[in-house]
Structure formats: structure tokens, C-alpha cells
């Protein structure tokens, strides 16, 4: 009778917990990796790094619950660098590490952090995503690169053409797994995962802001038995964010925004709206009222989006307005104020929006504006974060004065409406 196999043929994680580390020096890291950590000014590991690195450096697969802002990128990059430096190159010019991430911006940010953090390692990294020169990225891949970070669509394109070869992948990272699934990338993710070397021949790390059943289900067959660590066990709201809420009428909402932006002493303010038209309306009216503002919506060409982001990061634009899709996972330094112009319909988006501020231990404020249109979305949010958001009713003295000139898009909309009405009659 054939023997049934009960234990997997790889090292399963120990049944006892490996103690988190308190310092990077305790991790026995390659000195080229340590130099990068020092150059970045990271004095102590963040919570997710403390908990994940003892396992990932020992070679185990891992599921980490951590949202953007917790230092998860460095957590997986350090594991990648250490692994690639420890073993000599086996695969010629083939990529040895693959990072799958949902958005182009996130891919660019990870590439940037990998270049900075890995500056002394001699390892090469490239970001692969749609919307930019296809040939340029293909050439980089053909020349050979150690670490590839990309969005699923473009990765698959190159894989199908044989330009991106995955046979040499020793370590795989699935970043923001919940968002990959939310954005409908499940099939693409499976396609990539199936083309990789067998799970026993590689290490797989998965990070997600929330570890839902669908995340685990989608990736279960592609991972060895993983260790699970969480950086935010007690509450998923970033603790350092001061949350405020204004109740205001629909009619006065924009004036409240003007008042807030006029009063807030911050050089980088991120404003979220629920719709693209809302984003454009806010941008136009803020600009007309003398504020330096830019919109970041999904349909703006990639190059332009990156340019806008860069200018915002340099402090050349004071207010950046975006929707969730456009802004998810953005890694923007020093945003100390986030304004939720609309209350998100999906409570998890609230957590992600306010998580743009108070990153990596800094403090920040998140101000939400609720009107008769969206106040009822607050209850599920407060349920999710497990607390009531302190609120106040906006007073007349807190509202800004808006320039009376009618914005162009409103003029056009009114004109279109009039024309439509005339046609109907
Ligand atoms: P992430 O969650 O990966 O988006 O990281 C958020 C920010 O934290 C980035 O600006 C990182 O450079 C920074 N960061 C990562 N690890 C550390 C650390 N150990 N100490 C201080 N900052 C860090």
C-alpha cells in the first residue's frame, strides 16, 4: 500500500515563537545590508520588522498583516537582500526575486526604496508597470536584473513574450494582497504564481493590511506552511493619527475645506474624495481660491502622475487631491494632514486614507467632513476601528470665503443642462 504523506518535505516553522528582535545588529545581517539600513537612518526595527525578520531570515514563508506606513517594504527588502547575498547567483541573468504589487505608484516606491536601502549590495532592481515605455522596460529585463517589482498586468505581458523569465525566482513577495484581490487581480496573480518554480524551491512572503479569508484562499496553494505575524494586533487604525470629524451641510462643505486649509499649518495636505469628478471640482475651486493644488485621479497618464507626486513630495504643491484607487499605497513622506472630503463607502478605505499620515511613528491628523449625503457611512467605519470619532458641528467662523467666480466645469455643466432642457422641450 502506498504510504500517505503526512508531513511536507520542507522545514515547517517551529511550534514555539521566535522572539522578536530589538535591534538590526542582532540579526546577523550582511554588512552591506546593515550599511544601507544605517544610511536610511533606521535606528531600530519597526514592529513588523521586529516580528517578521527572525522568520524570513531563517527562510520560512510568512504572512504579515501590516499596512503601508509600518515599514513592511523594508521588512521584505531586507529579507530579499540577505537571501540573495548569502547564496551565489545560480541563474545567470534571470531575476532572483519577484515582488508583485497592485499599483504603479507602489511599484515605483518599492523600486526607489530598494535602490536606497540596497545601495551597497550591488544588486539590481527594476520596476515593471503599464503606461510607460514598453521597450525600455523590456530592454532592462533582457540585460538582466536581480529584483523585479511589478504590477500583474505588465508582468504577465512580459512573461507571455518570454522577456521576463521566472525560472530563477528564489524569493517571491506578494505585497498588498488584499488590494490585489479587491482590484480584481486574482486570475493574474494565479497566472504568475503558477509559472514560478515550485513552492518548495522558493520562499514566499505575503503582506496585507487585512488577512481575509479570500487572501488566504487565493494564496494557500502557492505557499509553504507560513508563519503569521501581525503588526497591528489590537486595532487596525494607526494609533498616532488624531482623528477629527466635522458635521457640515452639503452647501457649506467646500467653504469648510477652504477654512481648514487656510488655517492648517502644514506644507503637505492630502485630500480624498469619493469620485473623480469630486477630485477635479476640489482642485479647480482650490486653485481659483489661490491654493496650490493638484489632482491625482486614475485616468491621468502615468508619467504625469509620477511628476505630480514628485512635486508634492518636494513641497512644490501644497494640496494633493485623489480618489482611493489613485492614492492607495502611496508612500508620501511628511503628510501630516489628511482631509476626507467625502466619507468613504467602504470602511476599510477609511483606514487606508487616514493611514497616509502619521507614517513610521510620526504623528498626524485626519479630518473627515460628513454631510447629509454620506454621514451614514460613519457607523460601519466606527464599528471597524472600534471607537467613536470625536465630532463637532462646523461653525460659521470656521468656514472660508470663496471667490464668487463660477468654476469653468460648473459653467460648462450648467450650460449643458440648459441645452439638454431646451432639447427636451
Ligand atoms: P512602508 O510601510 O514600507 O511604506 O514604510 C513607511 C516608511 O517607513 C518609509 O518611509 C520607510 O522608509 C520608513 N521605515 C521603514 N523602516 C523603518 C525603520 N526601521 N525606522 C524608521 N523608518 C522606517
Write the layout of secondary structure elements.
Elements: H1 31-39, H2 47-56, E1 62-65, H3 72-86, E2 97-100, H4 104-117, E3 125-128, H5 134-143, E4 147-150, H6 152-160, E5 171-174, H7 177-182, H8 186-194, E6 203-208, H9 213-219, E7 227-230, E8 241-247, H10 253-263, E9 269-272, H11 276-288, E10 293-296, H12 302-314, E11 319-322, H13 324-327, E12 337-340, H14 347-354, E13 364-370, H15 378-385, E14 391-393, H16 408-424
Parallel strand pairs: 1-6, 1-7, 2-4, 2-5, 3-4, 5-6, 8-13, 8-14, 9-11, 9-12, 10-11, 12-13
Bound molecules: adenosine monophosphate.
Alpha carbon gap, first and last residue = 85 Å
**Main beta sheet:** 7 strands, parallel
Low-confidence stretches: none
The ordered H/E elements are HHEHEHEHEHEHHEHEEHEHEHEHEHEHEH
Strand content: 5-15%
Radius of gyration: 23 Å
What is the count of distinct domains?
2
Tell me what the CATH architecture of the largest domain is: 3-Layer(aba) Sandwich
- Relative helix content: 25-40%
Ligands (ions, cofactors included)? adenosine monophosphate
The tally of helices reads 16
Q: Globular, elongated, flat, extended or rod-shaped: what is the shape?
A: globular
The CATH homologous superfamily of the largest domain: P-loop containing nucleotide triphosphate hydrolases
CATH fold field value of the largest domain: Rossmann fold
The total count of strands amounts to 14
Multimerization state: single chain
Strand order within the widest sheet?
3-4-2-5-6-1-7
- What structural class results from the helix and strand content? alpha/beta
State the name of the first-level CATH class of the largest domain: Alpha Beta
